[in-house]
User: Fold these one by one.
Assistant:
Number 1:
Amino acid sequence: MYIGSDYYPEHWPRERWREDARLMQAAGLNLVRMAEFAWDRMEPEEGSFDFSWLDEAIQILAEHGIKTVLGTPTATPPAWLMHKHPEIYLVNREGRRASFGSRRHYCPTIEVYHSYTRKIVRKLAEHYASNENVIGYQVDNEFGGSRTRGRCYCNSCHRAFQQWLEAKYRTLSRLNESWGTAFWSQTYSAWEQIPLPWPNEAPANPSLELDYYRFISDAWIKYQNLQVEILRNVSPGKFVTHNLMGLFPSIDYRKLGEPLDFVAWDNYPRFSQHLDPAAVAMAHDLTRSLKNRPFWVMEQQSGPAGQNVMGTAPSPGELRLWTLQSIAHGADSIVYFRWRTCRWGAEQYWHGILPHDGKPGHRYAEIKRAAQDMAKLKHLMCSAYPAQVAVMRSYDVLWAFEAQPTSADLDYDQELKSYYRALHSLNVNIDVITPEAEYDKYKVIVAPSLYLTNDDIVQRLEKFVAAGGTLLLSFRSGVKDWENVVHEETLPAHLAGLVGASIADYTSTGRFESPNAPAQLAEVEFVHPELTSYRGTASVWCDILNLESAEALARYHGNFFNGTPAITLNKHGNGSVIYVGTSLNDVAIRELSKWILRTQGLQAPLGTPTGVEIIERRYNEKPVLFVLNHNSERATVSIPTAARDILTDQRYNDELLLDPFDVAVLELV
Amino acid sequence: MYIGSDYYPEHWPRERWREDARLMQAAGLNLVRMAEFAWDRMEPEEGSFDFSWLDEAIQILAEHGIKTVLGTPTATPPAWLMHKHPEIYLVNREGRRASFGSRRHYCPTIEVYHSYTRKIVRKLAEHYASNENVIGYQVDNEFGGSRTRGRCYCNSCHRAFQQWLEAKYRTLSRLNESWGTAFWSQTYSAWEQIPLPWPNEAPANPSLELDYYRFISDAWIKYQNLQVEILRNVSPGKFVTHNLMGLFPSIDYRKLGEPLDFVAWDNYPRFSQHLDPAAVAMAHDLTRSLKNRPFWVMEQQSGPAGQNVMGTAPSPGELRLWTLQSIAHGADSIVYFRWRTCRWGAEQYWHGILPHDGKPGHRYAEIKRAAQDMAKLKHLMCSAYPAQVAVMRSYDVLWAFEAQPTSADLDYDQELKSYYRALHSLNVNIDVITPEAEYDKYKVIVAPSLYLTNDDIVQRLEKFVAAGGTLLLSFRSGVKDWENVVHEETLPAHLAGLVGASIADYTSTGRFESPNAPAQLAEVEFVHPELTSYRGTASVWCDILNLESAEALARYHGNFFNGTPAITLNKHGNGSVIYVGTSLNDVAIRELSKWILRTQGLQAPLGTPTGVEIIERRYNEKPVLFVLNHNSERATVSIPTAARDILTDQRYNDELLLDPFDVAVLELV
Amino acid sequence: MYIGSDYYPEHWPRERWREDARLMQAAGLNLVRMAEFAWDRMEPEEGSFDFSWLDEAIQILAEHGIKTVLGTPTATPPAWLMHKHPEIYLVNREGRRASFGSRRHYCPTIEVYHSYTRKIVRKLAEHYASNENVIGYQVDNEFGGSRTRGRCYCNSCHRAFQQWLEAKYRTLSRLNESWGTAFWSQTYSAWEQIPLPWPNEAPANPSLELDYYRFISDAWIKYQNLQVEILRNVSPGKFVTHNLMGLFPSIDYRKLGEPLDFVAWDNYPRFSQHLDPAAVAMAHDLTRSLKNRPFWVMEQQSGPAGQNVMGTAPSPGELRLWTLQSIAHGADSIVYFRWRTCRWGAEQYWHGILPHDGKPGHRYAEIKRAAQDMAKLKHLMCSAYPAQVAVMRSYDVLWAFEAQPTSADLDYDQELKSYYRALHSLNVNIDVITPEAEYDKYKVIVAPSLYLTNDDIVQRLEKFVAAGGTLLLSFRSGVKDWENVVHEETLPAHLAGLVGASIADYTSTGRFESPNAPAQLAEVEFVHPELTSYRGTASVWCDILNLESAEALARYHGNFFNGTPAITLNKHGNGSVIYVGTSLNDVAIRELSKWILRTQGLQAPLGTPTGVEIIERRYNEKPVLFVLNHNSERATVSIPTAARDILTDQRYNDELLLDPFDVAVLELV
């Protein structure tokens, strides 16, 4: 277990370093991440390397009991390099080449940059291979974290894309057939004819577009792995990781995470996920589920955050709350971004633990308290994370919908969040998995809008259901094959056996069409006796269903499909499949989720008022409950048995009273 | 009379073709359009032509009684051609060159593409000249139907524009004078100095901009005609047409239609004209009026439509309703787009008669019924279309307003639609004409915002009014000459004699200025005893009028021009001219239209409830009434005399009851 | 005192010139500005100059008692020049090079254009040096007045920027340190590595961005001065000016104005400042304060204005009202834009005194009346403008906030306008100064969000307060040094001594984050006994303050900083400093302003109803009051003593009744 901060000695005078180390130690910190943007300091001119300043910083920190994680500095190549090789700059989809003075402005595929990358990474790894204070490496920083989300359209990427396609399809006739290039006269007779999916006079072939998104994701993974290999070879015995960005959509994090010892992510609850603790929880669960093991938070918000425009300030208590939420969800190390707020450059308003003036204030005090709390939870860090419910999120589906949203209102991640939020509010532990994960450990898999399917996924889902699992699918599931082509079979095509119903017709909301469009498509009404009575709007899309073996859980009101089934339930083997033909609002999803959990006998350890999160961990086979109050008011939680709060050593009998943003970690006694 | 579908044998296995033909025949279809995107199949590599697949498809279809219209495939040049000649790609006004993998991405003027076009069109025409199953050709597909609307800014177009200008003006001094280049030091001393109207530091000269829009329209027409000439020479005896896009603004359809045997258009009521049957009716009327003869619907919506995002699904009954509406307005052949929904490519969600799975469903059944109905109406196809009211829409005015909207709220087509909608709701037949049309056959011409005038138009309008016609003009009429220069005379300049009033001042709404702008400029109140009492908002623009020979029909309330005339009436010869100084809302326009029709003694054959459309045709001098219920509820229509519904052979005496989306075609008996 | 119009003889036939001159004279005009867009007429081909047409126009006008100001024609280089040297075109931040057919499309730094500029300006100056009817020159026209606001990103500007930086910083190490290039590995080891601040993958270094904005402002000033020097040398004895654009943000008008005899500006109240007389007043006050002496309005709105889209028409009376408002605020000459509305080109709807038809109408009559009024006020033109209150607006701060708004809702000019508007509504005269101005003459300086400070400004503010002045500062004051780097000291850093409080923390509204963001941050409540009771929203930003020597004037309600000071008052020497920690609404600012004026014993000469503006001038030590009714209704103003209206010679005792848009100029008797 580490608790630390991201530290930039190169931003401050050497005279200050010892004071910083002293303050860190006094706050209970035992780790820094350093150097991930310091190529200009490491190699001030080509071929001339200088790690002395970093050695000194590592040494001073070590003397204060603080270990170091080193970033490879490739997110920000130095001015001399980019001036010499402007072809390295990424080209965006408007055809504009990036320029100097920013970050992540390089192309992932260009060989000359790979060559410079190899040199600096090797030098760094060689230099620190035997330094015991350096315990691990972070490769680069936040792949994809820039305006283009890492999608480069330069000539190098164009050629690399064509080669990637050749490796994938081997023959042009296979590619032409898989993509359906007969449409709009797009048959390719040479690999070099294949374009990038530039904005154009009309939309690109969606199969080409999906493959481009896959290629660019692979390109970043390949670029990472080039570094991972050097680090492992040259500097064995230290861990290698990368800092991900939660729900970031453009790189397949499952594949990216594979060669890493563990994954880390950068958690800014008040930056892009304002006051939405469920969205933060979902990102934690996604990150943990990638490798199904403890992860790091490599950047944990430590103050107001933003670049040219900053967000709201965390309220007192929130920094600690977010820290403990991270631990609850499976983080075993927390690194705050950043130690001291930078006085210059593009992130002057991305606030650190210390303000610009370098004086410890209320954020420092709060981090210190969080460190003390973490120390009390050390034994839980590797404790089990029991999740019997999984939400399925596919990168391939994300990209397929990016190419073709189909309905102007369809937002795949919003659909996923709606289901996640409902289940999370019901206080069950959740994994957020990709279709490639194992399904056997779950009782419930919620896979909304599983747009693409392949044989492997379908077979494993069938096995999962047959064995007694509950599978929830929703509109636009099973529509396409893995190359983004609509299946030939009647929808839901290969999922039809599971769903027990077929799709006779469908309609989107068509919001784009006209201001006269009706406010709603239709309504949904629950009709199953075990479901609470509910009637509300059907949004985004309506599938019009013919029941085969399934029965109706809900029916439509209104429009020409009035009275037809909107939600179906199909028994399959020992399990069941629920198919939701439309986009439901939060109330409906919550009711449906309750019923699903109930039918699977899944029970939350505690009920809570709104805004209080429960996460259950298992230590020595016994449940330990994190109770997190995300409200700015006090909250009261009823507890069934006596319990002890590990943080305060206080005991509770009936009821736990939590201050605003406070947390308890309960052992049931 | 043909009824058919757009068919893409190249998208499906040969084994399927015969089944498709069988299903088409069973549904009553007797025509397909094919091949307009199949250049890659016709010429898989340069100079190597293959029509055998198409021959086979034509043959199979013919065996099922189905004739073929062939598209020339130039909307989608193949990959090998574009890879060899990237200079063919269109350049948009942001300076971005298009790339492969889409459609309509070619420049209209570039000679190398003309040369390839000549070759493929000649080959196609030669091959099918003697094939009796091929009855005609469609040139290319939807000229202008892409993001740029066909406006190319490449070097070839730049040079062609300069040559077009030289041909038009002959001398630079004439051009300089016509455009007023003295403004902002823009005098040209060489043709090659003349720029394209790129987005720039400040607006371009509006005369240059208008001429560029004319040039690009002419460029497409020239490109079409290059093909028409080859088709006529090489493959005589077959018709030649092109599929237009209704109200599409960027190509002068009157000129485009001239060399064609008839025009066709592509009708998607639930794509861009959601639930606005009047807008569809207007597009039909525009298309018919271009050549004043029956037209085809070459693509008639057959299901939900859209590319990356699709619209709402047609309700049951709407496909048939739209078919019969097309017939009512003068279409004599209907081709549905498309036969079967494509499983790949950019239009996977542009639904055909058959779903992706190829199984006939409810859309197939509905098309079959529509075909049966059409058969009963065969005798009406060439029947007269009696219209005594015309709405005037000028391409030159469209483009002049595109260059200078003058008021931020001014939308020329919206103004036209407002007047069209009112007249259409009053159940009179309407022609939608350009200023170049004959005026003599009408009793009423409604020409809102006739911004540009020339001597020919003014003289013919004067003749029309003098002979007893009623002319409606509105604000911004007569402002400019044909080169987009404000007339020197007091407004409405050359129309002043007709209007009988002069414009002392005016104001726009100036919406762009500030959030503090007042909600309305002023109000309009009707003051003529024959007009129903009305008071409501004056929008967009207010002309402040001095009456000369005219009298006031309405006056303003509020603002500094309170009490001055807002609408005037001027007697001129045997006719009268109404001038509307502001933008009226639908209620006001409807009242005004009623009064105009009444004064001209024009009477609708039937009154109808909202949403029920009446179109009158004349067969053997007797009226036949199409009664179309666009409502999703039943509608009741009172009928004055006994009538027989040709479709059902049912007879009605007082009252006709129509189901949702149902249609009757009444012979009065 | 001049009253005239902008005149374009090159737009009209010579036959008309004499009629125009006659009409001008009859209206009382005695000046024209001409030729600022007539390079094509002056030099129709390279090296061949022709001023004969202009000589003739000047002569005809002179015969009608009308003097001429000549514009140098460099805003619109002719077609032959731009065709020969396309490298002159400006490049915008999207990388697009401008093209011909617009205006202001040239780069400010490119040497070849400087060379052509020198030639044409020298020729013009030589030709008119001895022409007595030419009384002065306007250099170019509205520097920065185009889409890019004059910000060029071409290679010439790139090199010039690097040279500008070298001249400023002398060594790269000084630049690297000043900018904090250690952040994101941006250390420069050669001047040519330094980029322009293109849009990029992530934000640029804000210090680089600020320096670029300074550089481009300097580039235009340098370009102006190149012309000024020639005009002064070749044509001595005539004034040189330039027409500014009020609150235009991208050029430092203080520096631009320095070498000019006086500044002029272009005043369009109904173009961009719709119905906001206070914003117009502020622009006047800014313009006057630049050189602290009378200025010209070189373009005064004379009708509806706009390019492709025009604004609302001025109501009758407004043209005269705006004229007299200009005079009241210190203009001593008024030139209307333009004489006659142009029939062609991009400004056909920028209306002149005469309509397109050239016939004098109601605007002509109103201008004539304004000219008569001006004649009566001649003696006041150089009268004193007594202002004891200053609002401070810094170009450097504008640019620093442009680089980093910090809060998504922060708008520096809106903050300034809020304070200006409140003070203006309290009927005190105001100067709008830059930080470089003298402070000694004021009793109150209002300097909201004085984001950047340097030693000179801080020292002079301290001196000002110590001597008894009242200084108002607000949130984000004193945050950064002059190179856009956050001060190392606790905020408000170098202003802390003045403020007497320190900033413990802060929060922005963070509007960008999420739709769930709370509607307001907190509320502000006045708590000082001398302040009227008030409670209302705290917007944009909240500083959380620790009082040191200061006391609280207001406190926050709500959020985690509930109860802490929101506004503080600190006594310092003989004066006091008010610090406002948040953005207040108009009511709060007005109350606070009232109290500030009261404590400084500043009294308005008159109280007025809303929309009636009072400006006080001093003639022979006695007050003269301009009373301007900006309302479209009558207004009644109580007057304390008897008074005479100079315009009408009418006398008033208790009460002045003003018609809509009417003006009185009162001598108190």
Note: Chain A touches chain C through 66 residues (CB under 8 Å).
Number 2:
Amino acid sequence: MTKTVNRQVWLKSRPNGIPQARDFDIREAGIPPIAEGEFLIHNEFLSADPAMRGWIADKSNYWPRIEVGDTMRAFSVGEVIESKNPAYGVGDKVMGIFGWQDYAAVKQPQVMRKVLEKDLPVSLSLGVLGLNGLTAYFGVNEVLRPKAGETVVVSTAAGGVGSAAGQIAKILGCRAVGVTGGAEKVRQCREEFGYDAVIDYKATKDLDAAFAEASPNGIDAYFDNTSGAIHDAVLRRINLRARIAICGTASYASWDPWNEGPRPERHLLVKRATMQGFLTTDFAARYEEAAAALAGWIRAGKLKYREDMHQGIESAPGSIEKLYSGENQGKLVIRL
Amino acid sequence: MTKTVNRQVWLKSRPNGIPQARDFDIREAGIPPIAEGEFLIHNEFLSADPAMRGWIADKSNYWPRIEVGDTMRAFSVGEVIESKNPAYGVGDKVMGIFGWQDYAAVKQPQVMRKVLEKDLPVSLSLGVLGLNGLTAYFGVNEVLRPKAGETVVVSTAAGGVGSAAGQIAKILGCRAVGVTGGAEKVRQCREEFGYDAVIDYKATKDLDAAFAEASPNGIDAYFDNTSGAIHDAVLRRINLRARIAICGTASYASWDPWNEGPRPERHLLVKRATMQGFLTTDFAARYEEAAAALAGWIRAGKLKYREDMHQGIESAPGSIEKLYSGENQGKLVIRL
């Protein structure tokens, strides 16, 4: 530990909508001291996640809003370099909410999990072995609960969460239909992630016709990362007792004011269908079960992933807008 | 059996929206012969239900659409007066889908249930002991599953389904909040059905303020018979893990074209809430369990009901528009 400077990305102005690079700035602080029960993390990889938009902008969100002047809340993974907590030894790799910064004095509740898979890249703890993979795992297995042979639609199908959700649906014996944008992502969905059918929502003029072709037996389950027009087209095609897991709303830049659209009630009633919102953190007690399953599938070559690796903390401020541009391919990770 | 004329109410024209008296006509047919396995029902009471709108008008509904020229599909209760089915003896009272007519040749699948509660009025089989009560029972117990102490909101709170749902929520130890229109229905909700708080949606200028006052601890479960503005105001006030049962959409005269409104996804996500459509007929295997419970609560004075009794088959054609006018009080039944 020779460095003495802790670079921090902090919120400079509050956007209504998608946070831009200009809404952040980088400052230099000291290495924080640790109190009894805490430990010092040296971050190795920082995460950029779509949920960050909500953490910053939304009035009604699941976590306290980030205030102007705060170091940006973020998932990251790093090494314990000093510890006053017997459960975390120097050299342990730990993933949690440690912020967009080099160093963090960490309390137990900030930890999401210790990295146990020493044979796999540590950065995966921010993606397929972290929030993305866990979100896909619980969304599919606990909310959608598809049976073999059912048709499962996934939006943002090539993304970190979507690609894992589609592959888990395939592992469960389902027909997986992906919705993504652009020829290269369509190719990834087909060739790397193994979707049975892929809809390019940017190139498709008639979403209803595209879904009719991609889901000849209708839709039994929908992993919804987008809301919007894709969601509405799925609703028109659901089968009896369909399940819709609300995971994200990427098609909307802002929820203030409240977006309008076709009402779902009649479809839910006629089809006896269910729409359910979920957060991965609700399943915290079962992270290790899920991570073990995900790691097993990765080792067996059944669960593929992509990382969109960026270099240096300077890439953090502009990373959230990249997520919403639809340009990034795979899980966006920043290597420090 | 001295009569030889079977009066039938038939569909003369297809409305888009709420069926009016002019969309029906009455014709005289003969008493139908019964085939082996069938039995002849002499209807005593006919039902008018909000769902009839969907049976007639909607392209995508849970039952085949009623065609122009058909005798109107309807629930009714009557007596077996001739039988070629050993399970149904002359004198049995039976409830089922026998149509808006005096006589029906009935096959087993048309039967909803035999009337077993000989100490209670037979017309209750069309209301609190029939579809209404069963719908309330399964909607509350199977979809909403409220715990004692939770706040349950019911729309069309004074109606046949709503009043039973509110009282079942009270029996389960919940705080029941009713939404209804007009001073007389508000009075019924408070004095007869025992709601803890009642919102008069016609008199209230600010639904959000009314819900804030009526549900100081937020809303845990919502029995939605209306959709529309009431639904949206409830969504803004739900608690974590709230459940919304979609039972009816009375606030919309038509679903063609698809109605627009605020999108629910963000609320469902942030609150990890569930919206689920259900039909009572999905629970057919459990009707007797539910009817026995409902009859027990009626006898114990815990479950009150109102009947809006009309006289003669001539009242049938105009009965559906009455349901949607909000004028009827209690379950609309037509005595033949």
Note: The longest strand of chain A covers residues 39-47.
